[in-house]
Amino acid sequence: MNKVVLMGRLTADPDVRYSNNGDNQLCIARYTLAVDRRFKRDGEPTADFIRCVAFGRAGEFAEKYFHKGIKIAVDGRIQTGSYQNKDGQTVYTTDVIVENQEFAESKAASEQNASAPVPQAEPKEEEPTADAGDGFMNIPDSVDDSGLPFNF
Q1: What is the pLDDT, as a whole number, of residue 152?
Q2: Pairing between strand 47-55 and 90-103?
Q3: ∠ at Cα 115 (113, 120), nearest 5°?
């Protein structure tokens, strides 16, 4: 089984290109995720930088909504390859081919972290503030929520 699940922050805006495949153009979005390491040792990097490639609608979604610093979750498969560079040397590649991608934080938290450096040295626990909100919509008392899941 070839399956990978990642959560991290984009190191830059996605690099988006369209293939020239006749009348149908295929969107190809490439981006790199900075994924924090769970355990850290002194003197070692605190993140791994993993290249991801999203095709078609997933690529178009990345082009439209993803930007540097945003935290996303990705699942897909690892694909290796190689090519000859201009000096005739073989270059080996490892990419994650994206099958699913989604936001991993609320828009408010994303905007709040937009100025944060990528990758983060230490994950911080966010302290709730009265005006920042938690990223969820409040349901007015006048709405009948008896049919909603997780109704307590």
Answers
A1: 45
A2: parallel
A3: 65
What residue has token string 């409040």? 138
User: 9: burial class by Cβ within 10 Å (0-12, 13-18, 19+)?
Assistant: buried
Q: What is the pTM of this model?
A: 0.69
Instruction: Please state whether beta strands 47-55 and 15-18 pair in parallel, antiparallel, or not at all (unpaired).
Output: unpaired
| 92 close to 82: Cβ distance less than 8 angstroms | yes
Do residues 103 and 70 make contact, with C-beta atoms less than 8 angstroms apart? yes
CB 17 within 8 A of CB 32: no
pLDDT digits (tens, 9 = 90+) for 75-102: 999 999 999 999 999 999 999 999 999 9
Residue 142 has, within 13 A of its CA and on its CB side, a CA count of 0
